[in-house]
Amino acid sequence: MTARLDEEEDSWFRVSGELSFDTVPEMLEQSRELFGRAERIDIDLSGVERSDSAGLVLLVEWMRAAERLHKPIQFLNIPPQMMAMVRVSGLDQVCPISRATNPA
């Protein structure tokens, strides 16, 4: 199981692979440096192949990090399976979600 967080361009990040209890801790650690130097945080999740509840925890942690850094954040192109978990958990009421397909 692998997951990647790539900076596509300034403030635009792409997540790919599987978000699980095995991959999320490393992704969270990697994001700290990347997000620290970005002006805003736009996270494209279209490359997520599978996610368990750890993926939802990651979204919440990223929202908290953005708040601490005083930077706007949005989640883009959440895959249907992950979006279903977001809705069931009620996170769709607090997550900044967009369907944009390219950098703003």
Give a brief outline of the structure.
With 104 residues, this protein is α/β, with parallel strands linked by helices.
How many strands? 5
Average predicted local confidence, pLDDT:
89
Q: How many domain regions?
A: 1
Broad CATH class? Alpha Beta
Report on this model:
The protein has one domain: STAS domain (Transcription Regulator spoIIAA, 2-Layer Sandwich). The protein is 38% helix and 31% strand. The protein contains three helices and five strands; from the N terminus they run ββαβαβαβ. The chain has a five-stranded mixed sheet, with helices on one face. α1 (24-36) links the parallel β2 (12-19) and β3 (41-51). The longest helix is centred in the middle third of the chain and has 17 residues, at 53-69.
Topology diagram in text:
Elements (H helix, E strand, L loop, with lengths): L2 E7 L2 E8 L4 H13 L4 E11 L1 H17 L3 E4 L3 H10 L7 E2 L6
Parallel strand pairs: 2-3, 3-4, 4-5
Antiparallel strand pairs: 1-2
Helix pairs in contact: 1-2
Defining key terms:
single chain; 104 residues; alpha/beta; Transcription Regulator spoIIAA; 3 helices; globular
